[in-house]
Specification:
The chain is an alpha+beta fold. It has one domain (34-167). It is built from three helices and six strands, in the order H-H-E-E-E-E-E-E-H.
């Protein structure tokens, strides 16, 4: 009887360990996919002309450089990751820029982008449209997915600068 109890406890502990290891491995794989996607997207953005970043990656499609709906936009998918059940777009990734529809704004309350902040270098924070004169562009890449352990999220923040582009 004692041997059977010890054997049952050992089998339970072993199966719990195997299940936890599989869940952890799945979570790590999902997070790696998300991180690689975010870093690849930021690298693709770095390859773009600085002045086109905001119009190519904002949510407003009417300002796309080659016509409405031709730019990548602010939503993207990551193969291997499932969107959250309440996600109407069906895509796991979002690019967040300091925009209010088609305008780049310095006065927005967006702590994830460090706003409000001076984006055009005039030492003022105002409510004007800075689409044509921004010198820095803070960006957040957010990926939200339904994974092995439930809802998961990854955010990567970056800052693009006109000065960095001019130095190349």
């Amino acid at each position: 009887m004692i041997s059977l109890t010890v054997l049952t406890a050992a089998v339970y502990l072993l199966s719990s360990t195997i299940t936890a290891t599989m869940t952890h491995t799945s979570k790590r794989k999902e997070r790696t996919l998300a991180m690689e996607a975010a870093m690849n997207l930021l690298e693709a953005m770095r390859a773009e002309p600085f002045r086109e970043l905001a119009v190519k990656y904002n949510a407003w499609t009417k300002d796309d450089p080659l016509g409405t709906g031709t730019a990548p936009g602010h939503r993207f998918d990551v193969p291997g990751l499932e969107p959250l059940p309440n996600n109407p777009s069906g895509m796991v990734g979002t690019i967040i820029l300091p925009t209010d529809r088609e305008k780049i704004r310095e006065d927005l309350a967006m702590p994830e982008l460090g706003l409000p902040r001076d984006l055009n270098g005039d030492f003022l924070i105002d409510n004007r449209d800075h689409m044509l004169d921004y010198m820095i562009l803070p960006v957040v890449v957010r990926i939200e997915w339904q994974g092995a352990a439930g809802a998961s999220e990854l955010e990567v923040t970056s800052m693009f600068s006109a000065i960095q582009k001019d130095l190349r």
